[in-house]
Amino acid sequence: MKIILKALFAFTLISLLTLSSAMATDLENTLYLDLKDGRVVIELSPDLAPKHVARIKELTRMKFYDGIVFHRVISGFMAQTGDPTGTGRGGSGENLPAEFTDTPFERGTVGMARAQSPDSADSQFFICFAPAPFLNGQYTVFGQVTSGMDLVDKIKKGAGRSGAVQDPDAIVRMQIAADVK
């Protein structure tokens, strides 16, 4: 009986330590995207796009995204941000090589925007309002909204096919969860 209890105790302790370690790792790969209406939580996917996740985290820690507007928002499709000029033509100045996978673009998927070249992603990203299978395998998926999608739905929509937004909503603040005290 004592042997069984000791084994059960050891198993429980190991399980708790593993869970604690996993939670710490999750915080390092969790983004807090604060909008005017509240906080959106995004789980990053370094297993899918390690270079993109590393760059997003680097820019986030530099406070690059704080105050940047959602310059292109198309109802039923996606909300795009990450351009410091607010025109859709700007970025941080560092292009990333494509990290395409077979991960589908679903509601809440976070992907990297790019120009025509597959290796032209920079700092702009988008969050899908709905499934967008036509993007699958052509754009890099680097995260998924895990809470606050109702807040993403409230981002001010643009007009027409371009989705250009007059008086657009902005990112209040973006942070890595591990950095929040």
Automatic annotation (TrEMBL):
<feature type="signal peptide">
    <location>
        <begin position="1"/>
        <end position="24"/>
    </location>
</feature>
<keyword id="KW-0413">Isomerase</keyword>
<comment type="similarity">
    <text>Belongs to the cyclophilin-type PPIase family.</text>
</comment>
<dbReference type="InterPro" id="IPR029000">
    <property type="entry name" value="Cyclophilin-like_dom_sf"/>
</dbReference>
<feature type="domain" description="PPIase cyclophilin-type">
    <location>
        <begin position="38"/>
        <end position="179"/>
    </location>
</feature>
<dbReference type="GO" id="GO:0016853">
    <property type="term" value="F:isomerase activity"/>
</dbReference>
<comment type="function">
    <text>PPIases accelerate the folding of proteins. It catalyzes the cis-trans isomerization of proline imidic peptide bonds in oligopeptides.</text>
</comment>
<protein>
    <recommendedName>
        <fullName>Peptidyl-prolyl cis-trans isomerase</fullName>
        <ecNumber>5.2.1.8</ecNumber>
    </recommendedName>
</protein>
<keyword id="KW-0732">Signal</keyword>
<keyword id="KW-0697">Rotamase</keyword>
<dbReference type="Pfam" id="PF00160">
    <property type="entry name" value="Pro_isomerase"/>
</dbReference>
<dbReference type="InterPro" id="IPR044666">
    <property type="entry name" value="Cyclophilin_A-like"/>
</dbReference>
<dbReference type="InterPro" id="IPR002130">
    <property type="entry name" value="Cyclophilin-type_PPIase_dom"/>
</dbReference>
